[in-house]
Amino acid sequence: MQTMMPQPSSETIATALRVRFTAEVPDGAGVFCRFADPRAMVAVGESVAVDVLSNNTDSADGIDIITTGEAKLSAQKLQAWLGTDSACALMIKTDDLTLQWRPGRAVLQASAADCKMPVPAVIEFAFYEGELRKLEKAVEPFEAAAAADVSHAYEMTAEHRPHWDRLYRTMEKLYRLRLQFARLEPHLHRPNSQLTAEGRRVFTRLATKAQVADRLEAISDRLETVEDLYEGAVDRVTDYKAYRKGSFLEIAIVILLAVETVLLLLQGHLPR
User: Fold this and answer.
1) Which of 59, 155, 255, 265 is the most buried (most CB within 10 A)?
2) Is-contact 68 109, C-beta < 8 A?
3) How many Å is the Cα radius of gyration of the chain?
C-alpha cells in the first residue's frame, strides 16, 4: 500500500477531512492511500466544513476525520460530532493527542504538527476494519440458511436434487469469503511498515480497543463451521452421483449379459 500524508489545517478551529474508499479515482479527487488487499481500492478525500457532515454515511465505505487543533471540546460537541454511535467510540490518549474513533467518524485533538502523524493510520485502520465488518455481515446469511441445510450434510437422496446447484454455489461463495479473510487478516494483525512509528502505535491501539484479534478468530470459526457443513453436503452430492452412475452401469451390464444369454440360447435351438 502506498500512503500520501494529508496536510491538516494549522488553525485551531475544527476542520474535517472526508475520505471515501472507491474502486476508481473520481476526476479531481486527491488520493491518500491505495490498497491491494483484500481488494483493490483507493482512499480519496477532500477537506470539507464540519457543519456539512452527516452521520448517515456508510461507515464501511469511508471515514470523516475531524481535527480540532488544541481547542478544548465539550462533551456535547464531541457527542454531536461522533453521532449516534458516540457511546461506542474508542478513545486513544497520549501526551500529544486525543483520538476518538467509531466506524465512519474520528475526532482528533492535537496541535497542527501532531495531527499529521495519526491521520494515515486512522485512514488505514478505517479501511481494514470496515472490510472486517463487511465480512462479518456477509457470513450471516449463510449461518441463517445452514440450519435448514443440516440434513444435506449427512443424507442425500433424489428428493434433494433441486438443491444440488444451490449447495455447489454456496460452497463456492464460502471459499471466496475465506480467500477474502486470508488476504485481510495480515493487515489487521500488523500495521503497514510505511506508517510512522507513531502511526503504527495508533493503528495497534485502535486494533486492540476494537477487539480485532478476537473478531478475526470469531469470523474464522464461523466461516469454518458453515464451510464444514456445506462441504459435507457437496461431498454427499458427489457420492450420490457416483453411486447412481455406478448403479446404472451395473444395470446396463446385467441387461447386456441377459441379452447375450438369450442370443446364445436361441442360437443353440436354431436348425443347422
Assistant:
1) 59
2) yes
3) 29
What is the average pLDDT score of the chain?
81
Contact 117, 3 (CB under 8 A): no
Contact 67, 108 (CB under 8 A): yes
Question: 12 pLDDT exceeds 60?
Answer: no
| Cα(228)–Cα(62) distance, integer angstroms | 34
Q: pLDDT by residue (tens digit) across 60-84? A: 789 998 888 766 677 777 777 787 6
Look up cell 464461523; give the residue: 222
107 φ, ψ (degrees, to nearest 5): -120, 120
The residue whose grid cell reads 479501511 is: 127
Nearest CA-CA partner of 126 in 178, 203, 54, 52: 203
CA–CA distance, 230 with 167 (Å, rounded to integer): 7
Distance CA 47, CA 6 (A): 10
Question: Which pairs from 21-25 meet CB under 8 Å and 24+ separation?
Answer: 21/61, 21/62, 21/127, 21/130
- C-alpha 73/C-alpha 160 separation (Å) is 63
Report how far residue 198's alpha carbon sits from residue 67's, in angstroms, rounded to the nearest whole number.
Answer: 17
Spatial neighbors of 153 by CB under 8 A, at least 6 apart, are 229, 230, 232, 233, 236
pLDDT of residue 270: 60
Rounded-to-integer distance, Cα 190 and Cα 201, Å: 11
> Residue 140: phi, psi to the nearest 5?
-55, -45
Residues 104/185, Cβ–Cβ less than 8 Å: no
